[in-house]
Amino acid sequence: GGVPRRLLRRLQSEQIPVHVLPLGSPEPLLDLAVRRVEAPEVAFVDDTVPVTVEIARTGPEPEGSPGVLRLLDTATGRVLDELAVPPFDGRESQTVGLKTSPPEAGEPRWTVVLEPATPDLTTENNRAELDVRLVDRPVRVVYFDGYPRWERRYLTSLLLREGSVESSSLLLAAQRRYIQEGDVDLQALPSSPEEWAPFDVVILGDLRPDLFGREQLEQLREHVAVRGAGLIWIAGPGATPGAWAGTPLADLLPITLSGGSGGAAGPSRWPAPVVLQRTPLAERLGLIPENLPGPEAGWTLLRWAQRIDPDRVKPAAEVYALAVPAEGGMEPTPLVLGMRYGAGRVAYIATDEIWRWRYGRGETLNEQFWLPLVRLLGRESLARSERPAILRVLPERALVEQPVQVTVELLDQALIEAGPRSVAAVIEQAGAGESVAARLELGPGDGEGGSGPRNFGATWIPTEPGTFTVRVEDPNLGLSGLAEEVRVALPDDELAHPESDHATLIDLAAETGGRVLSPGDLTNLPEALPNRELVIAGPVETERLWDTPLTLVVLLVLLTFEWIGRKLIRLA
Asked: pTM value?
């Protein structure tokens, strides 16, 4: 951090020279590290599972690609995916994505390994492991639309023929009459949380919100926010999204709306055809087909699309694809957006002409667009289904004396209705035997009500580094299987900047009048040290005590008292 100015001024004022001996290379050493790895907790078999990796560097920037990043099956060593890491381009960190499509159910452990192309300071931080649970069951989808448009026709057919999807498709009309398609029939529109519960993903097309009751819309919002379901909006020229302003689902739109319920508050229409261009985020997540031809192909043109003002995109939203005008001259706008809402996800498609791609590549591109999106939004519901509770420990990589938030969310309605007042948890350090580092009592969150509290939380402040396991230990709730791992490091990581800072040492010597020494100069160091011996110059002054009147008076007084004392005791 450099030398504090106060210390430097004190050294200068007291004339204390600092002699420095810079050791090591003046050039910093390159160190690449896998800082963070993220992947879904649960995914579907044959799903494209994205693994997001953050790579950090310290030291000089390498020329070209820094190395190769691989995703391995830890048990077999099989390479699941690999890529050449792009150049850093002056950045200290970058995020890249790996993808794999596991064919079998199970709970595999994967390892992310970074192999640098040049010598690396340390290889201990070049790998990370993660666990994923793979489930072999179909995604359950329900699709509501307001009229038989082309997008609905081909999307319904796609959901019907896809073996990994169970779907129900309803075409709603006035007086709440509907036409039903799909491989799972609905007796009626879902009207309770239990009737919404089976669906992993809900698709809303171009229909008016008054086809549902307000209570149904509130149940759908809770289904997304609490149960982790996905919600896909497909825009249309009739009602979506403008008519949904002021409804319980308005917050689930990744764009802001103006006006009240029923007002034409939606985005305007592009005046000319556009083509879809996916973003790097969509590439990392395995969304949106790649290498779509340009507008010259003809069949890639989307002749109807909404022109979303980027200023109306909510801060928490992510852009998966852009609408690029075919003739140029105007700036691209967001076309496919996503956003987290509570425990679930939502996506918004600002066009209903993806079906046109079938003229160029048949059904392949339609499947590559819709199926990964449906599976992405269905993963959160899958992760929460059949689980009584969820334990979260944030951050997963903490620092000593940094607060760590431990929360438990109850999902099983029976546990919620039991109304527990707290949840007990223990924190154990790896390698410390059965010793408990801390015990926590997680209290209910603020604003909990209804049949009982759902969320419990507490804060833990680690006092030493290491790997810790946070485990729920509450026999009354039967949640002893819940456990999460957290790694705690020291704030002053020696590997952050391991090189010797020669420039700071040389400046310190120059500011204080010291010298820059080499190892061969150490024998001459005593000569460079300042001589602090104090010498007082001047004539010697002598005072003779016997020549002063005060000495004579004191002596006479003492002799007089002695003579009187002798008389009194008859010694004289």
From this structure: 0.73
